[in-house]
Amino acid sequence: MKVNRLDHLVLTVADLDVTVDFYQRVLGMEPITFKGGRRGLGFGTSKINLHQVGHEFEPKAQHPGAGTADLCFIVDDPIEQVHAELIAHGVEIEEGPVERTGATGPILSVYLRDPDQNLIELSNYL
Questions:
Q1: Where is the VOC domain (predicted)?
Q2: Overall number of domains in the chain
């Protein structure tokens, strides 16, 4: 077997509306509603499905919980511009810009937290 790519992931969140607002307003993701009124966020060729704490869909992670994710997104805009946009949105920068290692090489990253305190890394490949 050879895995090709990540299609989607699931975030368990405390408040669906707050999460959708943050990811749409700050990160430019597109809100999605699909089968049975489920909610998610689209970006590029991927998506994030959202589960609300205590109302998760089956099957689910063995121990789902809000604030347990650490995610890295590659952004098209220069990281300096991303940093400035985050500050303009009132988002506290956890760290960065700093050099790190991505899946295919060196990256320049800024770190922030979403409303559930998930760690979000926004990066450009160097």
A1: 5-125
A2: 1
Q: What average pLDDT does this structure show over 84-101?
A: 97
Is there a domain that residue 28 lies in?
Answer: yes
Question: Kind of pairing, strands 46-52 and 8-13?
Answer: parallel
- Structure token digits, residue 64: 């789902």
CATH at 17: 3.10.180.10
Reply yes or no on whether 121 is catalytic: yes
Give the whole-angstrom CA distance, residue 75 versus residue 3. 23
Q: In whole angstroms, give the CA distance from residue 109 to residue 79.
A: 7
Single pTM value for the model: 0.94
- For residue 2, being part of any structural domain is answered with no
Contacts with 68 (C-beta within 8 Å, 6 or more apart), sequence order: 12, 118
Residue of 30, 58, 95, 121 marked active site: 121
Q: How confident is the model at residue 3 (pLDDT cuts 50, 70, 90)?
A: confident
How far is 39 from 103, CA to CA, in rounded Å? 28
Identify whether 1 is part of a domain: no
